[in-house]
Automatic annotation (TrEMBL):
Keywords: Signal
UniProt-recorded name of the protein: Putative secreted protein
Domain of life: Bacteria
Taxonomic lineage of the native organism: Bacteria, Pseudomonadati, Pseudomonadota, Alphaproteobacteria, Hyphomicrobiales
Pfam families named among the record's database cross-references: DUF2259
InterPro entries named among the record's database cross-references: DUF2259_secreted
Stretch forming the signal peptide: 1-34
Organism the protein comes from: Roseibium marinum
Length: 261
């Protein structure tokens, strides 16, 4: 990764890059002012359900830098497995502007490939094998869905009368000294519960905001992935999509909450 070349204006270069992006993709012009929305790829569970991995990637708003972030989690303990997360952002101005053409697809593909190489050893060590069923998916484009509630059958072989799995999310104002210092006072935390087999479990209840979230403004239940290993307890991963304060408007990123059913 390199710094900006001496004598060049970051503001001018950013404006030119954003302009070329909008000219190349005119239908996205109106969406660009709302920040950027990361795409998510589920890398799945290990066969035994001990580990889960996913990636989020895209083009950063404002700078136009392509990025890839790969997270590997210890499922039972719901925490990152070091050296995860792998956070990569291409800030090489010469490479991005090669030939005077801004090709976001090519740039994102390249940074994702490089980041996958960095994460490969850990993905192999944790035996991530693409296991899991997306039991429920609530994309933002599905306008009639409830962003705060999801009810699913946790597995394919589901019969009437069996236990459903229900997720409920409540968000609330929660201040952050860091965010308040830059005049952002409407940051939020969230409480997530799971109802399954007659029990209500609290999966998350924020009392403070982790620095890794930046300045979060809103949340939604985006999807749940389940896995029923042959020799081990069933497991889940819930992806929460959050709006965070960005350069051009709210950016949308993901966080995962994992555990055993």
């Amino acid at each position: 990764m390199t710094h900006l070349q001496p004598g060049l204006s970051l503001l001018l270069k950013t404006a030119l890059r954003c302009l070329s992006f909008l000219l190349a993709f005119p239908l996205l012009a109106s969406a660009a002012i709302a920040g950027d929305t990361a795409k998510a790829e589920i890398l799945g569970f290990s066969k035994d359900g001990a580990y889960f991995a996913f990636e989020q990637y895209g083009i950063q708003d404002g700078s136009g830098f392509p990025y890839s972030e790969i997270f590997v989690l210890d499922v039972a303990n719901d925490r990152w497995v070091k050296p995860s997360p792998f956070l990569l952002r291409n800030q090489n101005e010469d490479e991005i502007e090669a030939g005077g053409i801004f090709d976001p697809d090519a740039l994102v593909t390249a940074v994702r490939s490089e980041n996958r190489e960095k994460a490969q050893q850990l993905l192999q060590t944790t035996r991530i094998a693409g296991k899991g069923l997306t039991a429920g998916h609530n994309p933002r484009t599905e306008l009639n869905s409830d962003p705060f509630r999801m009810v699913v059958a946790p597995r394919d072989f589901f019969r009437p009368g069996e236990d459903e799995l229900e997720l409920n999310l409540n968000e609330y104002l929660l201040t952050s000294d860091t965010c308040a210092g830059i005049k952002i006072d409407d940051t939020r935390g969230f409480r997530l519960t799971m109802t399954y087999k007659g029990q209500i479990r609290v999966l998350n209840e924020d009392t403070s905001l982790p620095e890794s979230r930046g300045c979060p403004l809103a949340y939604r239940v985006e999807r749940i992935v389940t896995h029923f290993p042959e020799d081990g307890p069933p497991v889940y991963a819930v992806l929460i999509q959050m709006d965070t304060h960005g350069f051009e408007g709210p950016d949308r990123r993901y966080l995962a909450i994992t555990g055993q059913l």
